[in-house]
Amino acid sequence: MKREAELQGLRDEVSRVTKEIISLIAERNDVARKIGHIKTEGSLPIEDEGVEDTLLKEVLADCERAGVDREVGNKIFNILVSESKRIQGQNTIQPVLVTPMTIASKAMELQRKGKRLVRLDIGEPNFEPPRAVLEACSKALFDLRTRYSETRGIPELIEGLIRHLKKRHGYDAKARETIVTPGGRYAVYTALASILKEGDRCIVIEPNWPAYKEGIQFIGARPTTIHTTLEEGWEPHVETVKESIRSNTKAIVLSYPVNPTGKIIDPRVFSDLVALANDYGLTVISDEIYTDYAYKSCASILESKANRFILTSSFSKTWAMTGFRVGYAVSSEDVISKMMKMQSLMITCVPEFVQFGALKAIESEAEIRRNSQAMKERIEAASKELDKIGGLEYYKPDGAMYVFPRAKRAGFDSSTFAMKLLEEKNVTLAPGSGFGDYNNCFRISLGQSKETIIEGIRAIGELIS
Fold first, then answer.
1. 122: alpha, beta or left, given left = phi > 0 and alpha = psi -120 to 50?
2. pLDDT tens, position by position, 296-321
């Protein structure tokens, strides 16, 4: 009875402390609401990273003194800061952005109604998958390779990837360091989820594919964005990246050639960023999906001296296998094991017959050369047309399959322009706001034929002028 009474007393104490915490959160929210009013009246930004950094250091120091785990403190701090931003943002009128998905949904709706559109918004090459891939998938289906397979991937494809990486990069991957994923997007997400916890930070260099930031935020972590400019050829400054690293920064995403600019950074800058990551114990997540559409020297994380890295890639772009949903990742055995646990929990495995097709894709080198050459010709054709439009300026892509022009006109709004282009010219593109703070830019995808690309860019020129 004495033990039960003691236990109940402790439970009552836990209940009291918990209620006090809730009351303190309510008090904190009231203060945040007052701060929000002041910021709104003064047209001040909601976020102030300097203030957050100072407070985080104080919180972590308090954790040390009180014997509270730093990760717990970091997680609580992140929840409190997110709640403060939500409250402060209630007084701010948020602009309604037209995202790439908004345009894509609108375009598909019009196409279902029989409307002919020039689609320059979607990042999907119109090449056909290799014939050998289709035949391998078909044979695997008729051979009833339709069962669950290993979560890591079928041994044949894992061995094929190992050979491919050895031939391409001279890298000796091991089977336990490799995983086949349902597309590159899922590889990126599980890579992020394997190393980031709630409250952690991850560096993303913009403009960039929005799924990196979205994945980080979905996990409960926070993206730290590095803004680059057209004037500097979209090249990031290593010192700027260094200054953005915080005590809770755990990773940096590198993705070259970049979607949407086609930028390939100088290999020396890549090496410096890897060295910086090593110095601060960061994991480098290197998304190398556009490697085969690179038209100048493009560094690979597999050829670097990174201490911690995850390479992600996909069969979607090189071999035009977007609908097959098959990608892969390479990392340490520990990281791949975490990715496998997530994949096993959520999807079990990539369809077996699809993996046999992917194996044939690796062997289809003629298609790699053909598609790469075709994309290079599309970049040249698009650049030639863009040069004729006086109201635009752009960086000629080093690779990938996009161009990211910027309007010279002051006050240009890419979201408004994208909708107007769709409605008046039946041409689609992706607003720059989807790739960071670049609303005066827009992305043109080179996934269609040269003739279609030229038609679309000429329509853009007509509307710009």
1. beta
2. 999 999 999 999 999 999 999 999 99
